[in-house]
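Backbone-to-sequence.
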């Protein structure tokens, strides 16, 4: 590898606000990171908590194919010998081949945080690294607060690096711990370090100034051979440098190998998997791996894309496991519609009246409050219907909803529905926790006998947005429903001044989408 990726998601990333990984979570993420092909996985600080020690113990049952497991710790404490330091004892108990030791490289921290002398700190660094190297371990020395330390006292910051290097450290990781260094400051400091230090260097950047990725790439461009970061920018405060941006920039733009051949296509999957485990939403506009990273909305953009995707894309989205999306909205032109129709394998004439009528309908609906960017299911139904490729699976004849509340109890909703399926009329009723749930239950009950696949789908999310709140209770609302079965997820939308009507529109589209997909020819999407 030209650059070794040292992933700190399980340790530094876990320090982010609202993140708490269980041991099982950490094992799952570690195995997925190994499958991606990073060189190192820092599993935690065994001396700081029993969970991390338990993680290392359980990880002995798994064989990693690409990565080496690393454990993290501080140097020995002031005034204590290395062999008697509890952190170092726990580090050895982790029984891993690689260890990362952080030490203070800013004199301010040595004097104020550690409350020891500058010479004692150098001894702590030297003795800890030497002790661990003597145990046959690969040692990465994290020079904490290095760039701030260098700005304040460059001679001492270099002495700290020298102490670790002379004790046998395999790599020195220069840390921008407070995340305040700008790329040109960082480059100037690196040049001075490289004039003095001749062993491999790594970069550990935080993102407090929004420069975590830029600083990491700048260091790697200057010859650093290790980069530390987290998946999805997880980490304390503003997070660590995002490996989901660093890795593709290295491989696709800097011609530096950091993953096994072909593994870059797993990046988007890993990004979304880590967020799922962390119970975090995946940012739509996250570079490279976001759902919207290759989404195109403007008609002029899409017109150019139809001729050559390089006109508005800096890489091929499939290279990182993502995919191109063309959005159809009030900003859409004929090009957007043609692209979407091509995706759906619809036979569309570019300039006929029917095509223009569909575009006009979409723009009118968006003006009413519909939004098809996040409602792929409703959009596909609208297009197929507009081009005469969608039949009616059922028709509503009558719908009634009753709400009942007795003292001391919650509301109970019941929906009565009469629908026609072909020549058959079905009349049924069902209760629910609320009117929408009752609607859903009643519609499913009515359709289940003729369309048994209904039982395979469920509503996975329900969102309501008030569109014109200044009208009070007469305001229009937009309802977005996400549905799923074992094969896929899809979203549908409804808009009305009546929340039940808007919900019904989205619910009917959700059901129709499933029935349509089940009846498409095998070679259609």
């Amino acid at each position: 590898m030209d650059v070794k990726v040292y992933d700190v998601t399980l340790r530094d990333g876990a320090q982010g606000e609202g993140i708490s990984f269980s041991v099982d979570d950490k094992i799952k993420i570690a195995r997925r990171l190994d499958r991606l092909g990073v060189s190192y996985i820092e599993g935690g600080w065994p001396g700081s908590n029993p969970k991390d020690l338990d993680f290392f113990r359980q990880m002995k049952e798994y064989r990693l194919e690409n990565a080496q497991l690393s454990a993290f710790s501080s140097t020995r404490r002031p005034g204590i010998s290395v062999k008697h330091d509890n952190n170092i004892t726990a580090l050895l108990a982790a029984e891993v081949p690689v260890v990362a030791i952080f030490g203070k490289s800013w004199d301010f921290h040595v004097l104020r945080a550690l409350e020891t002398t500058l010479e004692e700190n150098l001894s702590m660094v030297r003795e800890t690294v030497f002790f661990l190297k003597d145990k046959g371990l690969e040692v990465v020395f994290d020079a904490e607060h290095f760039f701030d330390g260098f700005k304040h006292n460059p001679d001492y910051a270099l002495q700290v690096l020298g102490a670790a290097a002379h004790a046998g450290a395999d790599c020195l990781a220069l840390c921008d711990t407070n995340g305040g260094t700008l790329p040109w400051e960082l480059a100037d400091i690196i040049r001075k370090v490289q004039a003095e230090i001749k062993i491999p260097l790594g970069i550990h950047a935080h993102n407090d100034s929004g420069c975590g990725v830029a600083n990491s790439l700048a260091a790697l461009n200057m010859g650093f051979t290790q980069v530390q970061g987290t998946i999805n920018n997880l980490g304390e405060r503003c997070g660590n440098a995002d490996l989901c941006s660093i890795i593709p920039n290295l491989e696709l733009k800097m011609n530096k190998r950091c993953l096994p051949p072909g593994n870059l296509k797993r990046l988007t999957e890993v990004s979304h998997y880590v967020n799922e485990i962390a119970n975090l939403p995946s940012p739509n506009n996250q570079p490279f791996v976001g759902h919207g990273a290759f989404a195109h909305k403007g008609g002029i953009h899409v017109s150019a894309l139809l001729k050559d995707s390089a006109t508005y894309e800096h890489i091929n989205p499939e290279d990182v496991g993502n995919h191109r999306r063309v959005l159809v909205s009030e900003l859409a032109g004929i090009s957007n519609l043609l692209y979407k129709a091509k995706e759906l394998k619809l036979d569309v004439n570019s300039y006929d009246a029917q095509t223009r009528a569909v575009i006009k309908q979409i723009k009118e609906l968006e003006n009413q409050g519909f939004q098809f960017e996040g409602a792929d299911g409703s959009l596909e139904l609208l297009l197929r219907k507009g081009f005469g490729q969608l039949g009616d699976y059922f028709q509503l004849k009558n719908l009634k909803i009753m709400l009942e509340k007795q003292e001391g109890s919650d509301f109970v909703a019941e929906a009565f529905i009469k629908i026609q399926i072909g020549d058959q009329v079905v009349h049924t009723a069902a209760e629910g926790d609320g009117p929408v749930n009752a609607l859903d239950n009643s519609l499913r009950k009515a359709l289940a006998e003729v369309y048994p696949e209904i039982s395979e789908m469920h509503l996975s999310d329900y969102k309501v947005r008030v569109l014109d709140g200044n009208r009070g209770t007469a305001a229009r609302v937009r309802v977005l429903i996400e549905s799923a079965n074992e094969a896929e997820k899809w979203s549908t939308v409804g808009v009305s001044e009546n929340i039940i009507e808007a919900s019904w529109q989205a619910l009917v589209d959700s059901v129709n989408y499933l029935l349509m997909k089940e009846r498409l020819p095998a070679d259609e999407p």
